[in-house]
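Changelog excerpt

This revision adds worked examples to the README so contributors can see how folded entries look when concatenated. The first example is reproduced verbatim below.
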Amino acid sequence: MKLLEERILQDGRILPGNILKVDSFLNHQIDPDLFMAMGQDFYDHFKDKEITKILTLEVSGIGIAFAAATYFKVPVLFAKKSLSLTLTEDVYASKVTSYTKKKTFDIRVQKNFLSDQDKVLIIDDFLAMGEALGGLIDLCQQANAQVQGIGIAIEKSFQPGGNKYRDLGYDVYSQAMIEKLEDGTVTFVKQ
């Protein structure tokens, strides 16, 4: 998605450890026009799939998932990373390790919100090692829900996550695929 790539080049910053900081428009502060364009792009790619629910991970994926859901006209379900008094014990649970936070989280969704009747589009902001994606897929498998596709805003294609899930047969669509982060510059995979 050219619009997202241009925004990464304009406002993204590279931090030590191959971390791309895009908090000014993607995962701390949100650019609504950009998100709606991203939602439309995800819809255009997956519109021929029968999607009944969009699943994402708390917190950064919620805005992008919401934008896509407005086009699909389906609910957004987000896996919670933190315990809540309103979250019952009747949940599907999995573990994910955050690449940037160097921390393992227990993620959960209420069983009554994800079932074997659901055809799920998973959406997330980043894909690097594939840990978060693995946890979301695990939640779907526990519910016997069908994963119809995976939409990623930014994929670091020089890390193994994307190819791992493509090799498993998932339709992984990334709007911006980064080939390398070096010397303060971003190089995208030509799509």
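The second example, added in the same revision:
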Amino acid sequence: MRKYIKIITISGLFILVLIQIIWLYSSYQFNKNEIVFKTSHLLENAINAETFSRLGSLPQGTMVKSRPQSDSGKDIPEFAYMQESLDELGKPISLDTIAKYYKQILEEENINNHFCLYLLKGNSIIQNKGNAHYSFFYIETQKIPIRNDFSYVTIVH
């Protein structure tokens, strides 16, 4: 009888610990997803601010290209065509400026964090700004496409 009580007690404790581990993991994943969503949104805001600062520096009446009719079925955001057009007009994207706006936005949100901003094409880093301080809580924003060749910007916290 005592043998069965010990087995049931140990099994119960094991199940309780397992439930706690599952709960902790689920909580971690939920919070990580929330942070990725929020930081991705903040990165989009920083890219938009940088883009509009470049648009504002263009001479009055300058036309910026949009999606050509031939690309109407492609899964490329309109924003990427505007970025390429600005690049062709001699106003390339500036990671320094995006990092400045992003840092400013983080401070406004009372988020104090180190980050590294990457401009990538495929898995190749084209350019980066900042130093990522890798930790156990590695967080990368969603990849935001900025060109129709699927180059994108992302941030690692």
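Reviewer comment on example two: The mean pLDDT is 87. The helical segments are 2-56, 78-88, 95-108.
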